[in-house]
């Protein structure tokens, strides 16, 4: 199985992404590193532990990372994800964690894992890229050692979700995002694709009627149904981070070589994705951008199929 390290700020969609990865036998989750973002680092770490407990996967270590961005003040998204990073009723339904976080830090863990599983480690970064940027600063060779680095973040051809210009994960720590984009030739899974695929309301309601753990997982997916209807006029639940994991486990996205910069100038476009679509700069590509959904793949089938394995 492909070794997978998940760096995350759970977070509703982070939770779905984590469940999908844990359920798929083609990936072996070597650890979950946590980062501030949707909520504080402490809440994100606690949520990660509770989510693993929920599906009896306390064998997966949780390693806390950055509690604040490089230079910006911490901006969280609790109004979107719920106080403490998950909806209140979901936090209450999840079991009390029995596992403690690892007494170490995410940056060391990322470097160690990249060294140990050279050419056989994929990193999925589902929150602000602070931990990864710090790891690259400590050990730049991780960019060569890892198989692939996937970042959920960016809005290459669409508008943002936290400001008109910026996607949340790039906005929270624009300097870190810029670092990782420039130094790690990542695969960028941005709002361009993540806001286009859903699990339908009918499927979500069916999951909510199943025994645990599926009922709570259904509740997590249900959380964005109103937002999806109001904002996009579509039916279903949105889980941006799960789109990235669905691509890793089953192939969902089409990528194009791209040259991208992240705006770090601190003004109204801070954290914006500057995508040189027409090669105006004449620079070599520095990443691969997910710009299309494969016609032969179904996001809903990938996600629901994996989640059902957890029953
Ligand atoms: C991203 O921002 C966070 O709120 C989500 O967890 C996801 O990682 C979507 O822009
Ligand atoms: Ca996230």
Automatic annotation (TrEMBL):
Residues covered by the Inosine/uridine-preferring nucleoside hydrolase domain: 4-297
Alphabetized Pfam families for the sequence: IU_nuc_hydro
InterPro entries xrefs: I/U_nuclsd_hydro_CS, Inosine/uridine_hydrolase_dom, IUNH, Ribo_hydro-like
Any GO molecular function: uridine nucleosidase activity
Top-level taxon of origin: Archaea
Family annotation (Gene3D superfamilies): Ribonucleoside hydrolase-like (3.90.245.10)
Keywords for the protein's UniProt record, in alphabetical order: Glycosidase, Hydrolase
A single GO cellular-component term on record: cytosol
GO BP field: purine nucleoside catabolic process
Stored PROSITE patterns: IUNH
Name of the protein described by the UniProt record: Inosine-uridine nucleoside N-ribohydrolase
Organism: Halogranum rubrum
